[in-house]
Design goal:
- The chain has 341 residues and is α/β, with parallel strands linked by helices.
- The chain has 13 helices and 11 strands.
- Strand 4, helix 12 and strand 5 form a beta-alpha-beta unit.
- Helix 1 packs antiparallel against helix 2 and helix 9 crosses helix 10.
- It is rod-shaped.
- The N and C termini lie far apart (98 Å).
- The relative contact order is 0.07.
């Protein structure tokens, strides 16, 4: 219909410009020509749209969105560049050349920006991944998990209680760090890393909360702790960590943190001097002749004079004092003579 209307108008204009007396006949002929050519143009457009649709379907949605933004910017830039031509060239020639410049600039903008769709959307605060939304995560959505929490062993016990709330979100670089520990030469750290990966898989399959993997990278930082703090700030997530230093740095940056070890310590049964605990000493302490073990909740037990009992069986120890720390609580105990079983 548009082509028919344009053909009718063109017939009138040609009859008037050429001096033909019967403008009505010329308009009718133009209408008929427009009707015939309109069908051909319509079929050609339908075929062209079909080709474009097939090409677009093969492109990722992110590339289409970013490419459209690039094409719009390129067209505006082309229009600005073509503007001076109106003052130099004849109007018809200037419009033709200007239209060509705008089309070329729009095409270049689509190809260049579309090819950098991930970086373009990231700069605009968006993401090519469905997990990361255009709007940052609300703090109620979940917690970004630190490596120290996964290797601590308390996550599997606390997660089913529902105290944490929301989903557990694990960054890809945290998994890479765990894998590096698991393959490293330190046997103790490798064992804890393997247990962390098993705990994560167990929570993903059977846990009461979802375990979501974040592919976001933070290339401006090299250290994992700095990456975690920056990612938590960017997505407005709470940071779940047992690292007191990381928690302080994150809170300075405005990131709310949850210290799982402190939570487990607060929920653990109260231990007062005079109580007895059963623990096996696993390593020497920092001071001479000390032995160190750990309770089931992760609390450290220090025994003066217990260096000779390291590596032995579990024994009953009398608590002499309890010292709360940022990393939990430290229990000082002594071996009761005659009470070692």
């Amino acid at each position: 219909m548009i082509v028919v209307v344009l053909g009718t108008a063109a017939g009138f204009w040609l009859a008037r410009d050429l001096g033909v007396g019967n403008e009505g006949l010329a308009g009718m002929l133009g209408c008929l020509l427009g009707y015939v050519s309109g069908g051909a143009v319509g079929r050609l457009l339908q075929r062209a749209v079909g080709v474009v649709e097939q090409r677009v379907e093969r492109l990722p949605p992110a590339q289409v969105v970013a490419g459209s933004v690039g094409a719009l910017g390129g067209a505006l830039a082309g229009a600005v560049l073509a503007g001076p031509l109106l003052a130099v060239l004849p109007i018809k020639l200037a419009l033709a050349i200007g239209a060509l410049i705008v089309w070329i600039a729009a095409f270049v903008g689509f190809r260049v920006i579309g090819g950098r769709s991930a970086a373009m959307l990231e700069m605009l605060g968006l993401s090519t991944r469905p997990l990361v939304r255009a709007q940052a995560f609300d703090a109620r959505d979940g917690l970004l998990v630190d490596t120290s929490v996964l290797m601590d062993g308390q996550l599997a016990a606390i997660a089913p209680t529902g105290l944490l709330g929301g989903d557990l979100m694990v960054a890809r670089f945290v998994l890479d760090e765990l894998q590096g520990f698991a393959d490293g030469p330190d046997t103790t750290r490798a064992r804890r890393a393997h247990r962390a990966l098993e705990t994560l898989e167990h929570l993903r399959r059977e846990g009461p909360m979802r375990v979501l993997l974040l592919d976001d990278e933070v290339p401006e930082h090299a250290a994992v702790d700095a990456k975690l703090a920056a990612l938590a700030r960017r997505l407005q997530l709470r940071l779940l960590t047992n690292d007191a230093a990381l928690a302080r740095v994150a809170e300075i940056q405005g990131v709310p943190t949850v210290n799982l070890r402190r939570l487990a310590s607060d929920l653990a049964p109260a231990i007062v001097p005079g109580d007895y605990v059963r623990v096996a000493l696993t390593k020497p302490g920092r001071q001479r002749d000390q032995g160190v073990g750990h309770l089931d909740d992760g609390s450290m037990v220090v025994v003066n004079g217990g260096a000779g009992l390291v590596g032995g069986p579990e024994m009953s120890l009398r608590v002499t004092s309890v010292v709360p720390t940022a990393a939990g609580r430290v229990v000082f105990a002594a071996v009761e003579v005659g009470v070692t079983q």
